[in-house]
Fold this sequence. Notes:
- The protein is of the alpha+beta class.
- 23% of the residues lie in helices and 44% in strands.
- It has one domain (2-60).
- The radius of gyration is 11 Å and the shape is globular.
- InterPro entries: YhzD.
Amino acid sequence: MRTYKLTAYEPTGELIVEETFTAETDNAAKEKGHALLVDKDLLERTHRLASPTGKLLLFHS
C-alpha cells in the first residue's frame, strides 16, 4: 500500500482539509480522493491529491 495526501484550500489560501490515506494504485487513490472530496462537499474548492512520489493525481484551482 502507498500513502497519498489530499489537501483542500479556501480562496484565501487557508487550509480546509489535509488528509492522508493508503491505496494500492494511483487509480484507486484517485477514486478514493474524489469520494472524500464529494463527501466533504469540496469538489469545487481548490484541491490536490499527491502520490508518494509527488505526482499530482487530482488538481482543481
